[in-house]
Amino acid sequence: MQNFTIAIPDAEIADLKARLAATRFPKSLEGVGWDYGIEDGFLRRFIAYWGNEYDWRAAEARLNSFAHFIEEIDGETVHFVHVRGRGQTNVPILLTNGWPSNFVELLPLVPLLTEPVDGVAFDVVIPSLPGYGFSGQPTRPGMNLSAVAPLWAELMTRLGYDKFLISGSDMGGGTEMALVRDFPQRLIGAHYVNVYSGFARPDEPTPEEQAYFGKVDYWTFAESAYAMIQGTKPATLAVGLNDSPAGLAAWILEKYRSWSDDGGDIANAFEFEDLATILSVYWFTQTIGSSVRLYKEAFADSELTQRAPEHSVPHAVLVPPADNPAPRAWGERHLRNIVRWTVLDQGGHFPALEVPEAMAHDIRAFHGQIS
């Protein structure tokens, strides 16, 4: 496998700073806060930070402190981080994220999982989804979440892991479902962040499910316009986001604020530096267009919401309170063999970045139950 080092040319960094400095901010309404979308004052502060205070070279060095690799699998260029555990027993685990994140979101888990506890540590593999970050951008339609699953299975084979744990959220959770469905013999266990809300609803839901559906329906009305755009006309959206770093920041940061457990202030959940690094990876790799296109591919994936056939893969679900938490009855309808169900007392859609210690603890506890 080819070692990979992130090395963005100076000219691209200078171009980003120039574009940020030349941002044309639109006129905004007074006193509306975030009700109309991203709040003007916040965006101006963040753009000033990203352009003047943020140090990409320092962030690049931190990213390069992890071991990065590039591998060609079935015609796709796959970027991944691979860090071996330091335990007497090392358990392979594949961590996979979704949109609007990239591999940067999952890096806080690496030191927490690779250090041994009672002699057990994890070999951590974090692949970038096709079209995300330093992975290649698919050139033909059809690279959906079900199509990603065999890439991840083959990657783990080439790394020497016959069986492995997996933990996924958002789009990564969809790929995890595909791995459970198509490669159950490869999995030690499957650890999910929440349960997908788009499965078919039952004719006779429990009271807890009925209340959950009401929250999901309200969220769909109030928050999911982005998904309809990305799932129908991603190429139109991509032009503006790929050309304007301020537009990219507005589109993505509004989601981090809305989907996290931040009490209305994004700074309560995330460091500006982490957010700027996630955005910078999108910007420098020009993958915002290919990342949002995965929604259109996912919408056309007829296998995505099919319940897996009978299998013996044990499941765990980690439920953050600020992420439309699913009731266990909903999980039991659509996921088999749930042996662990953990409801956190804090955290939102990005627990690896918001509450990494709690997520790492739950992964360890899940493995302890099934080993």
Question: What can you tell me about this protein's structure?
Answer:
It is a single chain. The chain is α/β, with parallel strands linked by helices and 371 residues long. The protein has one domain (2-15, 60-370): Rossmann fold (3-Layer(aba) Sandwich), CATH 3.40.50. The protein is built from 15 helices and 9 strands. A 9-stranded mixed β-sheet has the order 1-2-3-5-4-6-7-8-9, sandwiched between helices. Strand 8 (315-319), helix 13 (328-334) and strand 9 form a beta-alpha-beta unit. Helix 5 packs across helix 6 (171-182), helix 8 crosses helix 12 (288-299) and helix 9 (234-243) runs antiparallel to helix 12. The two termini are 30 Å apart. The model has no long low-confidence stretch (mean pLDDT 97).
Present the secondary structure layout:
Blueprint lengths: L1 E3 L5 H12 L18 H14 L2 H9 L3 E6 L2 E8 L5 E8 L12 H6 L5 E8 L17 H14 L5 E5 L2 H12 L4 E7 L13 H17 L1 H8 L1 H10 L1 H15 L12 H14 L2 H12 L15 E5 L8 H7 L3 E6 L7 H4 L1 H15 L1
Parallel strand pairs: 4-5, 4-6, 6-7, 7-8, 8-9
Antiparallel strand pairs: 1-2, 2-3, 3-5
